[in-house]
Design brief:
Immunoglobulin-like; C2_domain_sf; C2 domain-containing protein; 261 residues; 13 strands; C2_dom; mainly beta; four-stranded antiparallel β-sheet
């Protein structure tokens, strides 16, 4: 589980929501900073922080630069520019790896006065708000393929294809689908065996009931933290082999949404 803090100059840092149980989190949040009075060499700090199972906080890496360097790729106003930045350690003992993608956009002052806002993660996690916004909607989930799934000891490809299933959870609802894997491919490199396969199944998940939750259900910490997550588990019998989660507000409501990059 991880979140990001952003700060420019002496302003108080902004903070993203927490993406739970996700090795490749997509925060997809916008923050606006007033650049008036800032010098080109003003410090820019973007730090990634993690939260462990016991709710312990740990540092995952940072991007430290200056305002002029951050804005150097931007050549046009109101035209966002995406750039990847290597995460660096804060001190020699930090174990850091990975990259962070930032989308930078310059706005004229009169535009900033109109669009300036900040996301409130507690509002986005409100089940009553989610229920009212998503009432009447169903979520169509197309399961395509699994690539380079590491096989644990004792699980052979033959056993795997006989006991595979997918479990999807959103709010208080859950769907379970047994499926027959297709085009199974096995690779072994350096003693590590991986398996790739096709699923090609589609599920329809009703959202009206998913966020109609009770105070008792929300009293559990796990439920409270993951109320807005759509969680997908690849199961081997009763054992989860792999899992990921996507916040429900990051899923497009358009029927012709483009595929992810």
């Amino acid at each position: 589980s991880s979140y990001v803090k952003l700060a420019i100059g002496d302003a108080a840092p902004a903070r993203t929501r927490v993406c739970h149980r996700n090795r490749h989190p997509l925060w997809e949040q916008c923050f606006f900073f007033d650049l008036a009075g800032l010098a080109p060499d003003s410090r820019v700090s973007v730090s990634v922080h993690g939260r462990g199972r016991m709710r312990t906080e740990h540092f995952c890496g940072a991007v430290l630069t200056t305002l002029s360097h951050l804005l150097s790729p931007v050549t046009d106003v109101v035209e966002p520019v995406d750039s990847w930045y290597r995460l660096t350690p804060r001190k020699a003992a930090d174990r850091v790896s990975g990259d962070l993608r930032l989308s930078i956009m310059l706005l004229p002052r009169h535009v900033l006065d109109v669009v300036q806002w900040s996301e409130d993660a507690s509002t986005l996690m409100d089940p009553q708000l989610l229920h009212s916004l998503l009432h009447g909607y169903s979520m169509r989930i197309s399961l395509k393929e699994v690539v380079s799934l590491k096989l644990t000891k004792g699980i052979t490809p033959e056993k795997l294809v006989r006991k595979l299933s997918v479990q999807i959870r959103a709010g208080r609802c859950e769907l379970h689908l047994d499926f027959k894997a297709r085009d199974v491919r096995v690779d072994t490199v350096g003693g590590v065996t991986t398996c790739s396969l096709r699923i090609d199944e589609t599920l329809i998940f009703p959202l009206t009931r998913a966020f109609r939750v009770t105070p008792m259900w929300m009293s559990k910490s796990k439920h409270r933290e993951e109320i807005a997550d759509v969680r997908v588990y690849l199961m081997y019998g009763d054992e989860p082999l792999a899992k990921t989660n996507v916040p429900v507000w990051d899923i497009s409501l358009a029927s012709n949404a483009p595929p992810p990059a």
